[in-house]
Amino acid sequence: MKVKDSITLKAELASLETVTDFVNGFMDNCGYDFKFQTQIDIVVEEVYVNICSYAYPDSSGDVTVEIAEEGGRLTLSFADSGIEYNPLEKEDPDITLSAEEREIGGLGVFMVKQIMDEVTYRRTDGKNVLEMAKNADAAECN
Amino acid sequence: MNITKTVNGEETVLAVEGRIDATNSKELQDAIIGAFQSTKNLVVDFEKVAYIASAGLRALLLGHKTAVSKSGIMKLTHVNDDVMEVLRMTGFQSALHIE
Hints:
The structure holds 2 protein chains of 2 kinds. Helices cover 30% and strands 29% of the residues of chain A. By secondary structure, chain A is α+β, with helices and mostly antiparallel strands. Chain A starts with a strand and ends in a 7-residue tail after the last strand. Chain B contains 4 helices and 5 strands. Chain B has a 5-stranded mixed beta sheet. In chain B, helix 2 links the parallel strand 3 and strand 4. Classes of the chains: A alpha+beta, B alpha/beta.
């Protein structure tokens, strides 16, 4: 059975904890293990912080986070009405460089791509929509 | 997040406790860079850190670069498995000094 929930809030860094609490509250009911939840926490933080940083440079606006689970597959969607921004176009950082050679930043989206099994971006009706999915083996949603 | 600073002779230890995320990573960055004002040998004890994302990694990378610029060293200790997984995924495991 598919279960889902969503939250819409003003895109601002101060609400990061509200978003992670919302996502973890959902996952707590699904029996995911701690490691799985921690990895999803990272994804949620990276995507949410990106939206707070880039979507509304001259104004404020909302972001809607949807989470769903079906048969051990967790899906997450982030939608904002901000300026068009496809985070997947960003080039991956070279993670083999030494610390001295490395640039500050660029790691967030890279980690999202590493952790999730699927990540897709689309621009629809003036919205940026980032959809992601990750499969968990033994998870059950109650 | 809490950071406790202890000076042991030539070495300074920052014991970090809690989650390191985008809302508090600047505190860690400031504590690390601040510590290098008075030491060349910094240990960042991660025993009680269960979560780090890219904002925290940025603070560690800046700390490492600060250490190099002062001919010092920054070591991470007691890194747990979940945090190590993040360091491995991003190549920081080999880029930083981890004990």
